[in-house]
Design brief:
Blueprint lengths: L4 E4 L10 E4 L3 E5 L6 E7 L19 H9 L3 H11 L12 E7 L9 E7 L4 E8 L2 E9 L6 E7 L5 E8 L4 E6 L3 E7 L3 E2 L10 E2 L7 E9 L3 E6 L2 E6 L3 E9 L7 H12 L4 H16 L3 E4 L3 H20 L25 E2 L3 H5 L13 H22 L9 E2 L18 H4 L4 H16 L2 H22 L1 E3 L2 E3 L10 E2 L5 E2 L6 H21 L5 H10 L45 H14 L5 H13 L3 H12 L28 H14 E4 L2 E4 L10 E8 L3 E8 L2 E9 L3 E7 L2 E7 L3
């Protein structure tokens, strides 16, 4: 098995068999068909909408009334009040840009022919090789990491002529036209509104002249030994062997004023490219990311598959979240539906965060940056939401974001029984700040902390200081939910809105703690006394009557004990509040995780694997990863089956990329963990991974680690540090303190 390539012996028949290529700003799904090919195209800034405000029209919420209803246990009335007076409109949707069609004269595959397509994870290159009737046809495809360009190379052997018909279209309203003598241009304008697929309405897609994101896709063909002509917005190409197709696209999202100038520049660029030079520069730029780290395990079919999935996650991260591009959404940058699953937005009660759990540890710190840009944009809008919805200072965001920085709760138009279950959750701003701090922890970039992270963290802290409400001897969040889960209250009803959920408390404990650390580093005293006082009054972790870590302030039973979210365990992972010394809490976490079971969606299995790894149970973690790896198809998927599609994209179902990224995070968590100044080697190593080697792993404090192990014991270890520092290493049953000098 070639562990660094995805290899297939036939073209893709469906989207979840196609291969993803991308460079952060542009994405493509390639089916690998030499006849009647369709390449589906995406641009990371092509979203519906105009950035309009979507808050609930009521700006005079009676918070005291709502608090009292919740404290009195009148949850049904509280939820009805929230839906009517707090919840707002949906986020906008990430859109497909268009389709590239290429029809060739290559003969149909017959009995004695052969076909292979593969995606090399080593150099981000798709290759198709097709042999039939003594002839060889080849296609190579990459999305350049050095230029905002896609490139395809069709090649036939010396005895064949190539004939290609090339065209473009889009599901979005558009117009196509000729460009020069050998090019095409597709121009369109996105709708101002696209309803989520789960919302039934009379006009789910709305266009308005002069409004909506403009976009353009340009295509140029080179046929050195052939000719190109145009007919009805189709390019007809005849060549002796080589044909090169270059494609690029832009939107006016970031700048309407420069749109026409950038369009002109883009079209000029794709007419003056050299394929060998472009390929070489692409591979160098891509390898600068991919070659930073490596991981191998002892041979075995399952281990090879684990390795392939691990490296595939790294490939997908580089391809969908390059610095300067947009944050990876629910599907990275790959989407072919006008009304995408969950709007293909940023779901920040777990999914977007999971996308980036692996980033720092896997030596892709700069790929983390697009998330920070999204947080910054959301915080700008979130100040308005905090002021108008909550009458508080600071900034806040809820469970859904979009490219415009949507920060208010959605669900006012929810047609399900209780939209508060997912939408009445003003905690994502706190969780997202964890990522800002994590980036600083790993890089020690003090300028980043001072100029970007701290203002955002401070704004979130300011909001939550105002949001907390006294209850008994504590300060609690109210309203509060445990994302998407419901409990059975004394009235026997299923409810979501209460106060002081364990996840809320955990997020705030980390946020307030990280704020105080940042203040100490930067020499700032602002708000520190208030934060310390609030931190001391947050409720402690509790054990429920079943021995489990309690999910809510009151020990209410879950309506669904096997619910896919395990939010009450945030403090164990990804948080760092519950440690190996906390035996009682760890036992409670284990009970809670056991109660949830091993089934679930793809991302759910990945989160559980991370949690079992943090608990030191590598066998249970590996069991979940194996469950996640079983190959499935769309028609066979279920919300408790998870699995992986033939193209190795995670089956939520449908596809969500967080499962791919979460898989890699779990693998790393099984191999090394960090607690304060301690580094734990092989803390959750399953027996099947008895031998292995990892290079280029990152640790907090600007440390790079290489190590190897045999029969479950560390045999080699090298650490390099950006600064002089002291670390305690735990390995092979020993504990050793070492001093690292700046490298």
């Amino acid at each position: 098995m070639n562990e660094l390539s995805l290899v297939f012996d036939r073209p893709a028949e469906a989207w979840n068999e196609a291969l993803p290529l991308g460079n952060g700003s542009m994405g493509a799904m390639s089916y690998g068909r030499l006849r009647k090919e369709k390449v589906e195209l995406n641009l990371d800034t092509l979203w519906s909408g105009t950035g309009r405000d979507k808050e609930n029209k009521n700006t005079d919420v009676d918070w005291e009334f709502l608090h009292q209803k919740i404290f009195d246990g009148e949850y049904e009335e509280a939820e009805a009040y929230c839906k009517e007076n707090i919840l707002g409109d949906w986020t906008e949707s990430y859109l497909p840009a268009g389709n590239l069609y290429i029809d060739t004269n290559v003969p149909e595959l017959k009995e004695h022919g052969s076909y292979q397509r593969q995606l090399s994870l080593r150099d981000a290159l798709e290759q198709v090789v097709y042999r039939q009737d003594g002839q060889v046809y080849q296609r190579e495809f990459f999305t350049s990491m050095s230029e905002p360009v896609m490139a395809l190379h069709y090649k036939a052997d010396a005895y064949s002529n190539l004939e290609l018909h090339i065209s473009l279209d889009s599901q979005i309203r558009h117009a196509c036209s000729a460009f020069g003598t050998n090019g095409l241009v597709l121009e369109g304008q996105a709708p101002i509104y696209v309803a989520p697929p789960y919302y039934s309405c009379e006009h789910p897609i709305v266009y308005e002249g002069g409004k909506g994101t403009q976009f353009v896709i340009g295509l140029s063909v080179q046929a050195p030994k052939g000719c190109v002509c145009q007919k009805d917005n189709t390019l007809l190409v005849t060549a002796e062997n080589d044909v090169y197709i270059y494609l690029s696209g832009i939107t006016d999202f970031q700048s309407q004023d420069s749109y026409l100038a950038r369009k002109k520049q883009m079209l000029e660029r794709i007419c003056n490219l050299s394929y060998p030079q472009l390929k070489e520069s692409h591979q160098k730029a891509y390898e600068a990311y991919f070659d930073r780290m490596d991981l191998t395990l002892n041979p075995g079919v399952q281990n090879d598959l684990v390795i392939k999935m691990f490296h595939y996650a790294r490939y997908l991260m580089i391809a969908s979240s390059k610095p300067g591009t947009q944050c990876a959404n629910l599907q990275g940058i790959w989407n072919h539906d006008l009304r995408a699953p969950w709007s293909s937005n940023y779901t920040v009660n777990i999914n977007t965060e999971m996308n980036y759990w692996m980033a720092e540890k896997a030596n892709l710190s700069d790929c983390h940056e697009p998330l920070f840009d999204l947080v910054e944009r959301t915080a700008s809008r979130g100040k308005k939401t905090a002021k108008e919805v909550y009458h508080l200072n600071g900034w806040v965001s809820h469970h859904n974001l979009d490219i415009w920085g949507h920060s208010s709760p959605v669900g006012h138009f929810g047609q399900d029984e209780n939209p508060c279950t997912y939408s009445m959750w003003p905690m994502s701003s706190g969780w997202l700040c964890w990522h800002l701090w994590e980036h600083y922890r790993y890089t020690l970039d003090k300028d980043f902390l001072r100029e970007k992270a701290f203002p955002l963290i401070r704004g979130a802290v300011e909001f939550y200081l105002g949001y907390l409400v006294p209850y008994e001897r504590y300060l609690v969040t109210v309203p509060s939910t445990s994302p998407e889960n419901t409990f059975t209250a004394p009235d026997q009803g299923a409810h979501s809105v209460t106060f002081g959920s364990t996840m809320d408390n955990s997020i705030l404990k980390e946020l307030f703690g990280n704020y105080l650390k940042a203040c100490e580093i930067l020499g700032i005293t602002e708000l520190t006394d208030k934060v310390k006082a609030a931190l001391e009054k947050l409720p402690p972790f509790k054990r429920g009557k079943g021995g489990q870590l309690q999910e809510w302030f009151l020990d209410y039973p879950e309506v669904d004990v096997h619910h896919r979210h395990v939010s009450q365990l945030y403090g164990l992972y990804p948080g760092n509040l519950i440690h190996r010394e906390d035996e009682e809490l760890l036992a409670a976490c284990r009970v809670a995780l056991d109660r949830r079971g091993d089934e679930g969606t793809g991302w759910c299995m990945a989160w559980k694997a991370c949690l079992w790894a943090r608990l030191g149970d590598g066998e249970r973690a590996l069991k979940l990863l194996k469950n996640q790896l079983h190959v499935t198809r769309e028609e066979n998927c279920s919300l408790v089956g998870g699995g992986t599609y033939p193209n190795m994209l995670c089956a939520h179902p449908p596809f969500q990329i967080d499962g791919n990224f979460g898989f890699a995070a779990a693998v790393l968590e099984m191999l090394v963990q960090y607690q304060d100044d301690r580094i734990l080697f092989l803390p959750a190593l399953p027996k099947e991974w008895k031998d292995g080697k990892i290079r280029g792993l990152k640790a907090p404090g600007g440390i790079t680690i290489d190590f190897a192990w045999k029969d479950g014991r560390i045999t080699e270890c090298s650490l390099k540090s950006l600064t002089d520092t002291v670390r305690t290493l735990l390995y092979n049953g020993t504990e050793k303190e070492i001093t690292l000098k700046a490298d």
